[in-house]
Write a structure and sequence with these properties.
Length: about 300
């Protein structure tokens, strides 16, 4: 199998069939498979995915027990792929399916483990664009992403990297965070970004905040270390201030009023507390990231025949 295409599906009963049919046409010269992962959709998406599986031999339909989120659904799909390259594409037609060929061509050059799509002009709602900009800025510092790289959901990943991603067994997968834990050899190819043809974006304010917190806390110890540094700075400032006060008092240049002593004690005590909390948080953070054992997804049902082929 040369190429696997993973599509997380959520409330897209009207777009998933045309998208699958278009992929069948554009990728017809390749040995490829399509993995549809229905992420607890409230519409008829599950039924449409099952119909597509029955119609095409190279389509596998999986349905999750509830809505786990896009990254969990993608991780489920990755675990069921066998292709040498794996493309991840959304179900809303904003990413042109034919652009997969350009991403695969860049990946085949051997220069990159992962090839992201980039857009000259994004057709998202302004709120989604603002949220994406915030997350991209945050990931530059938290996971070591290059500043000029846009982390789009439309990308192609080499098999070796996919296998490493699939080793993650925690409940909060962030695919791009896992990618940058595995490799820094990434590139991008400019593709078109189309306006949404059906429905509206599923990225609400709640989901964007959840993504922000997942990136901020789940994939980096940067927040803990930031408070540790802040605590150390406050403690150092307090100790230095105390030394200045003592020297001034001994030389009769400073009168130690009560409010000065109280301020110094609060500043120094706060710094010491933040420093020790930061050190303690460092240990707890590492334990959490190493020993989180909740499942990232639960499969409601799939294709037993095709799952056996994947296992073989």
């Amino acid at each position: 199998m040369f190429l696997s295409v993973v599509i997380p599906v959520y409330n897209s009963e009207r777009t998933i069939a045309p998208l699958t049919e278009r992929l069948q046409r554009w990728l017809s010269e390749l040995a490829f498979e399509i993995i549809l992962v229905n992420d607890g959709s409230a519409d008829r998406s599950e039924l449409v995915c099952q119909q597509l599986e029955n119609r095409y031999d190279n389509v596998t339909a999986l349905s999750l027990r509830r809505n786990f989120g896009e990254f969990n659904a993608v991780l489920c799909g990755l675990n069921h792929t066998v292709g040498q390259y794996v493309a991840i594409i959304d179900d809303d037609f904003q990413n042109p399916p034919e652009a997969i060929l350009a991403l695969v061509e860049a990946a085949e050059s051997g220069q990159y483990d992962v090839v992201y799509s980039r857009y000259a002009r994004k057709q998202h709602h302004w709120f989604r664009n603002v949220g994406s900009r915030i997350v991209n800025t945050l990931t530059t510092y938290s996971i070591g992403k290059p500043r000029d790289l846009y982390l789009s959901s439309f990308k192609v990943i080499r098999r070796e990297v996919v296998d490493e991603i699939c080793r993650y067994k925690g409940p909060y997968p962030y695919i791009d965070g896992l990618i940058f834990r595995i490799t820094s050899t990434v590139g991008s190819v400019e593709v078109a970004h189309n306006a949404r043809v059906e429905g509206r974006s599923n990225y609400t304010a709640r989901k964007l905040i959840s993504l922000f917190m997942n990136v901020f806390i789940g994939y980096s110890l940067w927040p803990i270390r930031m408070f540790t540094v802040l605590g150390a700075a406050l403690m150092s400032l307090g100790l230095l201030g105390g030394l200045v006060l003592i020297m001034g008092w001994l030389t009769n240049k400073v009168e130690l009023a009560g409010w000065i002593i109280v301020t110094w004690a609060i500043l120094t005590g706060l710094g010491i507390q933040l420093l020790f909390l930061g050190v303690l948080g460092e240990y707890l953070g590492k334990l959490f990231m190493a020993h989180s054992g909740l499942p990232p997804y639960v499969i409601k049902h799939g294709s037993p025949r095709k799952e056996q082929v994947v296992q073989q």
